[in-house]
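Could you help me review a protein record that somebody else here produced? Do not assume that whoever made the record got everything right. The record follows directly below this note.
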Amino acid sequence: MISDQSFTPKETLAELDKYIVGQAAAKRSVAIALRNRWRRRHVPMPLREEIAPKNIIMIGPTGVGKTEIARRLATLAQSPFIKVEASKYTEVGYVGRDVESMVRDLVDLAVNMVKEEEKTRIEGVAAANAEDRMLDLLLPPGPGSLATMGPDGGHSFTIQNPDLPIKKEKDLSGDNTTREKFRKMLREGKLDDREIEVFLSESKSMPMVEIMTTSGMEDMQANLQDAFSKIFPRKKKKCKMKVPEAMAATKKEEMEKLVDMDKVIKEALRRTEESGIIFLDEIDKIASRGGGGSHGPEVSREGVQRDLLPIVEGATVTTKHGMVKTDHILFIASGAFHMSKPSDLIPELQGRFPIRVELQSLGKEEFIRILTEPENALIKQYVALMQTEGVELIFEDDAIEEIAAIAVEVNETTEEIGARRLHTVMERVLDSLSFDASELAVTRFVVTAEYVRKQLSDIVKDQDLSRFIL
């Protein structure tokens, strides 16, 4: 994965261009924000503490790429990144998640991220340890050996039978020669068919605890399970498996032993505070709708905004791993704002999102590019799917144009759902082929504009039907 340390705004833009068509302004703002995190880390203290992140609001109709920008940013920004739905934090009657839980989730994600990096770093040592454990099982030491297996799989340096004479130096070297032969056979895969018995830690030896909670209590279950895991230590269980499976399981166990969790948690908290990113989707759903309407839901929405405000401004949140300051976490919000405007958010919250970017609606040209250009383009996906059935699927250029034109037409006559309309249109066009592909005698299928019109003509003409089908 590419680190954000090495990314200039132009490089970030180029990476986003591989998957997202258009929306240059939004991609530009996100690229600058990402680079500013790196710049801030290189500013000397105490000025570094004073530089606050410039939070962003992305405004635009559904299906134009707001969430996709966030998804791709997560893969680029080798930083703790979490996407949350703002609407999760409210329901009529004040039922919803505690707003601080987004920071707790971000910390958990950061801990897992750092733990995986640490496991990659110590993989070689863990593999060597696992190999030694395998050799101890395949070639148990003699009764007089100084290195006999302990009850937990470790080495015990006590002699099992003191009455037996200790082996001479040359005898031990003979043992080592045999051991090295077995090590070579193990590495070459000559012992892969052999079954052995290994002692592994049970993954779950604690009782399951499930708690029906209200807002603010959702972490109680995890905390109780952590407490129980300390009270009830993991037990060993005997498993019979082939050598490669035993090697993989033992290596995984060795990695868990070698990871220094105190160091991992310390680094995870630092990363969360310094470079964490929270993507707040559907923020327009918590905006008051400019007067009128019933007051119950409006009060609930404003309550969520007021709860969100201290987190965005900078607060200290208690997590099970320690205290986290949110002063330098970057917040990127997005919303369609069909029924409301960014100015309907409370003024204090508006002030915390100084950068506003409007995403444009997509037309026919953009749809054609979306179908063909990105690395995960829809056309490429369907071609790959049909390839599994031995059918070479070919789309003519005029067929792609026809699909894009129909998607635009349906968006205009029914609901505007942006590029998501392409998924429904494509699925309908290839419905017959997808059903019959496994029994088709042909190995090549060409989709023409005529075929597209034939598959969709009745649905597109009947607006009532297209509302349901497309």
Observations:
- Residues 124-258 form one domain.
- The chain has three domains: 4-118+265-358, 124-258, 364-464.
